[in-house]
Amino acid sequence: MLRQASAKIFQTLVVLVIVSIASFSLLKLAPGDPVVLMLGSEYSQDSYDELQAQLGLDQPVALQYVRWLRDFVTGDWGNSYVAKTDIFAFVVTQALPVTLTLTACAIVLAILIGVPLGVVSAVRKDSAWDVGIAAFALTGTAFPSFFLGIVLIWFFAVKVGFFPVMGFVAPWEDFWSGMLHLVLPALTLSTFFIGMIVRVTRAAMVEVLEQPYITAAIARGEPHRRVIWVHGFRNILMPLVTVIGLQLGAILQGAVLTETVFSLPGLGQMLTGAVLGREYVLVQAGVMLTATLFILVNLAVDLSYPFLDPRLRAR
Amino acid sequence: MTMTDDPIAPQRRARKQARRSMFIRRPFFTVSLIVAVGFVACAVFAPLIAPYDPVQQSITAMMAPPGGAHLLGTDSYGQDILSRIIYGARYALLIAFFAILIGATGGLILGTAAGLTTGWVEWVLLRVIDSILALPSLILAIAVIAILGQGVDKVAIAVGISMIGPFARTVRSDVLQVSSQLFVEAAGLMSITRLTVIWRHILPNIVFPLGVQITVRVSEAILVSSSLSFLGIGVTPPTPDWGLMIAEGRGFVSFAPWMSGMPGIALALLLIALAIVGDGIREEFDPKMRGHQ
């Protein structure tokens, strides 16, 4: 188990290095000379050389990469060309908390809604409930989230006037207002994920319910609820955790869209603004951060299997 | 070699039997297919169907509600929404087509390479695929757009590149499956060169599963490309793109909800139809799914 884990960690490190090389090349491939961009339209050759040396851009590319990686790991992500603010501070204190709050709320919401629906679907297989839930899951997965967000704004905020339309209030500053601002975005973001979770839960639960230990539990006269939620549920945890890990990327990309719909100042707005403003350093930071998050969560998922399933510990 | 030695012959026969009755057995599939074909027809015959020029602006007909001269209303520039939706189908499907072409080709090359190599080459190729997959397709597409800039062709390239990873992963597993078959081993034992084995025996057998993948991923390509346009970094106005139209209507949602609503319904309808069609095709034709039924 330890050997497997260390092999997995090594693989993850290699993937991180490849992703970092790709992110680094993003800056190299981007059109325009960063030195020119910083100096503006008028500059002398001397000031150009000076700034180029100052930025280390006169060094060999490999060395530039090593320096860049060192700076990235130590949190020195450079300044935004235009806003002249420190990117790391901006991302960590402003953008990331918004995105992570939204993502976490959406995941929790999706689990709370998706798992029971999936279980009901599996227990009442081929019933009208099952068909209805399957149709809902498919619609939820296929429906474009950004349009769903607009529909929700139109209905709840404009027609009913129940929820605030846009903006972000940090839940750790004003909990209720923050939550109220998060309801519609989290619902928007979680819809496709609910569909995913329903499908995975149903498939896993259907399989589990056919196992001998379920029959044994029923034969022992254990209450139905206990059979499903204790004996059954424990055994669908693994596929559930896997799907959450694998779909994290999809959730993060959904967050980018949801943030734009609801004007939340998170990573998504940062990325879009960066592309429009040609701030490649910001794009790079966003790309690196998303990939790292995704890779680390999936490593955690892989490493968590032995804890979720005692049968895997022996191997 | 007789027909019975062909490992996919039984599947082929099963497929033929399924084809006859599939449309009756799966009414939702049939309806969805008709909807999807309808969108394709809109895209192909856009100039014949559309009542107005999609980019013709009109000061007298700004934000007209649905009904009357403009069936689905007009937007803030007085452009006819119905015509823009019909032309939008053209852009959506065109971008999806080229994106899939790029993604499937790239995925085929990378996936086949990873599936056929062994040892450290395979290991490195797998890590490369992992790295591509570590980026959600929209984020990867945003990064490519950042380098290339905006426009219809650039969106197609960006979405295409973002699809290489998923395609590569499935192609690799298909290649592994085919490579483990006896006829590949037999061909190797007959000292047929490796390249011929790949070309004559392995590649033909992964074409069909690749085709299934393509139909399943069309909706993803459309979703990502319209997402880019929605974020305002995809195609540029006044191109009649659904994502762009939804974004433009966002600010007017309280008093002109049809501006976002109509293209949004078109997009949602197409995506749901494609999802049902994709599910149907995958369940009917994907050998890996058969065991689960």
Automatic annotation (TrEMBL), chain A:
Q: Which GO terms describe its molecular function?
A: dipeptide transmembrane transporter activity
The UniProt family comment states: Belongs to the binding-protein-dependent transport system permease family.
Q: Does the keyword Membrane apply?
A: yes
Keywords from the named record: Cell membrane, Membrane, Transmembrane, Transmembrane helix, Transport
Principal subcellular localization: membrane
This chain's protein is named Peptide/nickel transport system permease protein
Q: Which segments cross the bilayer? A: 12-30, 87-119, 131-155, 175-198, 236-262, 282-305
Where it sits in the cell: the answer is: Cell membrane
Q: Which InterPro entries match?
A: BPD_transp_1_N (IPR045621), MetI-like (IPR000515), MetI-like_sf (IPR035906)
- Name the membrane topology term: Multi-pass membrane protein
Record domain ABC transmembrane type-1: where: 96-305
* Residue stretches in coiled coil: none
Q: Which GO terms describe its cellular component?
A: plasma membrane
Automatic annotation (TrEMBL), chain B:
Q: Which UniProt keywords apply?
A: Cell membrane, Membrane, Peptide transport, Protein transport, Transmembrane, Transmembrane helix, Transport
Q: Which GO terms describe its cellular component?
A: plasma membrane
What membrane topology was assigned to this protein in its record?
A: Multi-pass membrane protein
Record's subcellular location:
Cell membrane
Q: Please name the InterPro entries in this protein's record.
A: BP-dependent_transpt_permease (IPR050366), MetI-like (IPR000515), MetI-like_sf (IPR035906), OppC_N (IPR025966)
List where the protein spans the membrane.
28-50, 91-116, 128-148, 255-281
BP GO terms, sorted: peptide transport; protein transport; transmembrane transport
Short name of one Pfam family:
OppC_N
Identify the residues that the record assigns to the ABC transmembrane type-1 domain, covering every copy. 89-278
**Source organism, top-level taxon:** Bacteria
Grouped into one coarse class, the protein's main location is: membrane
Kindly give the PANTHER family that the UniProt entry links to this protein: D,D-DIPEPTIDE TRANSPORT SYSTEM PERMEASE PROTEIN DDPC-RELATED (PTHR43386:SF1), OLIGOPEPTIDE TRANSPORT SYSTEM PERMEASE PROTEIN APPC (PTHR43386)
Which family is it part of? Belongs to the binding-protein-dependent transport system permease family.
Q: What is this protein called?
A: Peptide/nickel transport system permease protein
Which organism's genome codes for this protein?
Loktanella fryxellensis
